[in-house]
Amino acid sequence: MMIILISQTTLMLVYMRSWVVLILVLGSFLFVISETDTVNIGAILNFKTINGKVSTIAMKTAVDDVNSDPSILPGRRLSLSFHDANFSGFLSIVGALRYMEIDTVAVIGPQSSVMAHVLSHLANELHVPFLSFTALDPSLSPLQYPYFIQTSPNDLYQMTAIAEMVTYFGYREVTAIFTDDDQFRNSISTLGDLLSTRRCKISYKAALTPDSSLSPQNLTNKLLKVRALESRVIIVNTYSKTGLSVFETAKRLGMMKKGYVWIATTWLSTVLDSTGISGNETLFLHGVLTVRPHTPDTEKKREFVMRWKGLSNGSIGLNPYGLYAYDTVWMIAYAVDKFLNEGGSISFSNDSRLKVVKGLNFGALSFFDGGKRVRAKLLETNMTGLTGPFWFNPDQSLVHPSFDVINIVGNQGRVVGYWSNHSGLTVRAPEPLYAKPSNRSSLNQRLGTIIWPGNTKDKPRGWEFSNNGRPLRIGVPLRVSFKKFVTQVNGSHDIHGFSIDVFIAAIKLIPYPVPYVFIKFGDGYKNPSYSDLVHNVASNVFDAAVGDIAIVTNRTKTVDFTQPYIESGLVVVVPVKKLNSSAWAFMRPFTPLMWAVTGFFFIVVGAVVWILEHRLNDEFRGPPKRQLVTILWFTLSTMFFSHRENTVSTLGRMVLFIWLFVVLIINSSYTASLTSILTVQQLSSSIRGIESLITTNERIGFQVGSFAENYLKEELNIPQSRLVALGSPEEYAEKLRAGIVAAIVDERPYIDLFLSYRCQFQIVGQEFTKSGWGFAFPKESPLAIDMSTAILTLSENGELQKIHDRWLKRETCASQDSNSDSDSDQLQLESFWGLFLIFGIACSIALLLYFGMMLWEFGKHHSDSDTPEESQKTGSGSGSRSVRLQRFLSFADEKEEVSKSKLKRKRERSTVNGTEVDSRNRSNRIQAEIDDEQNVNS
User: Fold this and answer.
1) Cα(229)–Cα(467) distance, integer angstroms
2) Is 101 helix (H, G, I), strand (E, B) or coil?
3) Where is this region: Disordered (predicted)?
4) Angle, vertex CA 150, rays to CA 145 and CA 151, nearest 5
5) Quick one: which of 878, 853, 855, 880 has its CA closest to 866?
6) Which residue, 428, 580, 804, 872, is the most exposed by fewest CB within 10 angstroms?
7) CA 840 to chain CA centroid, nearest Å
8) Treating both helix axes as pointing N-terminal to C-terminal, what angle do 650-679 and 833-862 enclose, rounded to 10 degrees?
9) Angle at 446 between CA 442 and CA 449, to 5 degrees
10) The pLDDT of residue 896
């Protein structure tokens, strides 16, 4: 009995143990199934904000859409839990830690960049990706925070769009009003960097405390400081509640009137889209520009917009960040689905380093084992969502960042253009432009018509005078010499002069009133230092400086100059002496030897041409007296190219052509040299310019207050001991005459005025600096640009020249720069010996050819007529040579046609019926020829 009872008990225990094991196994299986069927994600938002409300609705809708799509996470369910940070950084941290305890694969948030910097360290440690479409601080680097992913275009692109808008409108300075936290401070810093690359700047940063501690009085005080500035271009980058308060206060302070430019970041477009602009708000938002993340108008987006009213129950409007919230949920779903399909498993483990940290128990925090792979799948996302193409560049930024440019008119927002990093500012939507090559040329940047504050279409100037309309303090040098440039009228405080009149004429062309007052600079006993005057402008002692102020390098480093209104440059002035007038001044261009050689060649050319033309040209024949006159007249007339005798021989024409060229050169040189001698003064020193002045040890005068002193010392290394300060034109003349200074170095306008009535001095050499005179303004002053435009207008319409003539045009001495003494003005033979050599060679060759031809013709003419009997008659020796020479000269003097006729008759008479003619007939024939020759010569 006992055995049976024990057996039954044993069987019962075994049976019960089997059920316990089965229950434990099933429980474990069900626990695993329940754990793996749900994919947990979390969201950290500020529920009371516009983006918090819109995003909550959009993300819930996205989760429902994902769970209803069997192709995504099949057999699993996406679960999203929300945590309200309630504008508290501490609560944001608490929410993040809670998610790390419940095995969350990804967290959407935080909503602000302030907490993104903090929670990104937690994400890096536990490998749980954090994704945010509103924490868009550009300094959240993916290199430092690889597990923090921005799922909408970050503020780098928004600030780029605003910087290009500022550049497009031509503004140089802006004022930034921003909340001083990571959400906005870093974005404004990025804007400053972007503006500086475009030669613009943020001239003032008005940092506001966060919403909770910003009082109306503090805001008013900030805006009063902004109103006192010159810049009227204001960027507002803050939270929506604070932003509306800024504009309401600005309206009350008169800062929403004509002349102001207000540009708000995306917070204003968010208000416009989600809550709209109330009637009261239209009074202080009219004419404001804002930007909005651009999302293409697709069928998918239109369907969701139609669903939105039902989803939100009409409580709030949809904005682009709601679309990005929806796409972010789908992005997580696609990434986790791909991760699981590739064999990944959702598992978490504890990190032993977190169990005990200084007495705090963090052991419940879980490390996501597959976090690294899920992060990679998130960055590999390639989908088309409500916001259009949705994928990432290698730098972890979204592709094709773009914004709408919106102009607030009344309670509506007008889209006046678009910005994208592909094409810049355009009036066309960016999508069609992506298919074309990128073109960021300034010529292609364009926006539509804008209604500005004050309800005007005229683009505001962008700046006004500071200090509530205080007149500009214009520093004017009080000169004691050369007063035609700047002078004080005796007995009054009026200031006049060339420079002053130019300034007044230019200021009248500026299309807005510019109140100013002239303030004299100097003691009235000597010319003031112009470098000190410019320094006072840079130090804000003066708002500008007007006068004969040279634009030089060291001054441009501290102030901005206008367009030069007169050219200037340093020149050297020395004494001169004038040659006494003489009745024989016309002889000075040539030296005596040059005159002699020139005259000799005039005779030579006449003789050569006579020789070459005598036998062919009737104009060079006749009685000896007539031929001599012909030669002289022909020679002299070639000097004026008025010779009447024609040349018929080839050699004669060649010689005459070369000679006429020689005469042309001689005449031109003589005319130029004589003009110079009769009109140019001659130097009384060896100084020919700045180069020769530097090499001497002579003393140099300069004008007190001029930059010439520093230039001579610092640039040309001339010792101070050689420099003499001079205060007036009279002192210039006195020191030069007395030889105390060898030269004066001063600016060209002063020297031109000095020389206009002192003809015993002269400029030598060239200007060795190139500059001009302009008006000085503080760095980056927009008035300097407008004044430059006005000066150019004065130059183009001729008014600037009229002012110049009225003050500075006087009769000047008829002098020119000279670099040589009187002897060097004469033309030396060395300058022309090449011409004479060529001409001499040409004449010699022509004569040799001519006489060679003559001898050949003479020999052919007389070879048939010379017989032994004639030789006996004429004798031999010197008598025979004399007869032949006489016969040759007669032949040379004989006209060529006569010689040819005689030669022909001789040949016909030399043979009669094939026999020789007797000597008597031959003698008679010779006698007849002699008679013919005499008749011809007569």
Assistant:
1) 7
2) helix
3) 862-882, 894-938
4) 150
5) 880
6) 580
7) 60
8) 160
9) 145
10) 63
- Which two tokens mark 311? 């989803």
Residue count of the chain, please give it: 938
The amino acid at 387: T
**Angle, helix 650-679 to helix 592-613, in steps of 10 degrees:** 160
Nearest-angstrom CA–CA distance, 563 and 773: 8
CB environment 550-564: b (16+ within 10 A), e (fewer): bbbeebeeebbbbbb
pLDDT in tens, 599-611: 787 788 777 877 7
CB atoms within 10 A of CB 15: 10
pLDDT of residue 744: 92
Contact present, 231 and 426 (Cβ < 8 Å) = no
461: its two tokens: 């100037």
What are the distances in angstroms from CA 785 to CA 105, 318, 770?
58, 45, 22
* Residue 240 CB neighbour total at 10 angstroms: 19
The residue behind tokens 């003619």 is 917
The alpha carbon of residue 522 and the mean position of all alpha carbons in its chain are separated, in whole angstroms, by 37
Rounded Cα–Cα distance for residues 598 and 234 (Å): 84
By the 8 A CB rule, do 498 and 807 touch?
yes
Q: At what angle do helices 155-169 and 182-196 cross, to 10 degrees?
A: 40
Q: What distance in Å separates the CA atoms of residue 203 and residue 464, rounded to the nearest whole number?
A: 14
Buried b vs exposed e over 160-181: b needs ≥16 C-beta within 10 Å? bbbbbbbbbbebbbbbbbbbeb
And the tokens for 61? 């809708």
pTM above 0.85, yes or no: no
Of 107, 106, 1, 108, the residue nearest 51 (C-alpha): 108
DSSP structure string for 575-644: EEE-PPP-TTGGGTTB-HHHHHHHHHHHHHHHHHHHHHHTTT-GGG-SSHHHHHHHHHHHHHHGGGT---
* Residue with tokens 């950290």, as numbered in its chain: 44
Q: What is the DSSP string of 741-809?
A: -SEEEEEHHHHHHHHTT-TTEEEES--S--EEEEEEEETT-HHHHHHHHHHHHHHHTTHHHHHHHHHH-
Which residue from 244, 266, 288, 274 is spatially nearest to 410, judged by alpha carbons?
288
The predicted structure's pLDDT at residue 5:
36
Q: How far apart are CA 698 and CA 619, in angstroms?
A: 67
Task: Quote the pLDDT of residue 790.
Answer: 94
Cα-based angle 323, 328, 332 (whole degrees, multiple of 5): 155
| Matching residue, tokens 């004691």 | 480
Backbone angles phi, psi at 258, to 5 degrees: -60, 135
Question: What is the identity of the amino acid at 45?
Answer: L
Torsion of CA 343, 347, 353, 354, to 10 degrees: 150
How much is the pLDDT for 879? 56
* CA torsion through residues 344, 349, 353, 354, sign: positive
Residues of the chain with pLDDT under 50: 1-36, 491-492, 681, 814-824, 864-865, 867-871, 873-877, 912-920, 936, 938
Give the span between the Cα atoms of 677 and 659, in whole angstroms. 27
Total Cβ atoms within 10 A of residue 725: 14
- Is residue 284 a contact partner of residue 64, using CB atoms and an 8 Å limit? no
Return d(Cα 269, Cα 11) in angstroms, integer.
78
Give CA 320 to chain center in angstroms: 40
